[in-house]
């Protein structure tokens, strides 16, 4: 009598889920420790203790501490790739609202990965040349939805700018600032208030005066 055809796939799914949980434990622990101590000062034993796993288990997923650091940074960029496009799609076809939705999604990813986002700025020079190039490529790729929305807005006469790339990176930097200066902003602003204030600040600079009434909810008007 043969076993159930669903058993192997169910077992594999359970193993994959368990691996994902353990990997997440390691990455979250690495982000916390490396932000506080610097990657050079974090031993694999300390990382294992913080993550609540064995050193051997870490080596099962990563070749060493450099790979862990790279994985922490890539994790943030992968979250952008996963979260931003669906948020833009949910906003509909209007380029301005798609841009606003993209910025909000970036900010929410940054909030979720605050330690890792700070680590990106502090420790990226500790990566190998190959690792740094990988990060640069992913950053360009994951910021493309912002540039696309700006270009579409300009083409539709809804935005005014000669440099879509500059607008996109200004928004990206503002999203990262929530992590970099969180110690300051959290005193007076919630995440939602921060998103609304920064979004309005940028959109007021690029939405033509005659179109602002259409976006009063985004401009804070």
Describe the overall structure.
The mean pLDDT is 90. The protein is mostly helical and 221 residues long. Helix 6 (114-123) crosses helix 8 (164-180). The protein contains eleven helices and no strands. The chain has a domain at 65-212: Tetracycline Repressor, domain 2. This is TetR/AcrR family transcriptional regulator. Residues 43-62 bind DNA.
Task: Reconstruct the topology from this structure.
Layout: H1 7-37, H2 44-51, H3 55-61, H4 65-90, H5 95-112, H6 114-123, H7 129-155, H8 164-180, H9 182-185, H10 191-206, H11 216-219
Any key phrases for this structure?
221 residues, mainly alpha, Tetracycline Repressor, domain 2, DNA-binding, DNA-bd_HTH_TetR-type_CS
From the spread of the alpha carbons, the general shape counts as: elongated
Find the CATH superfamily of the domain at 65-212.
Tetracycline Repressor, domain 2
The unreliable regions are none
* Biggest sheet record: none
The percent range for helix content is: over 70%
Order of helices and strands: HHHHHHHHHHH
Which architecture of the domain at 65-212 per CATH?
A: Orthogonal Bundle
Q: Tally of extended strands?
A: 0
What is the name of the CATH topology of the domain at 65-212? Tetracycline Repressor, domain 2
Provide the β-strand percentage band. Answer: under 5%
Query: Which structural category do the helix and sheet elements fall into?
Result: mainly alpha
Query: Which CATH class of the domain at 65-212 applies here?
Result: Mainly Alpha
Number of helices: 11
The end-to-end span amounts to: 71 Å
* Cα-atom radius of gyration: 21 Å
**Rounded average pLDDT:** 90
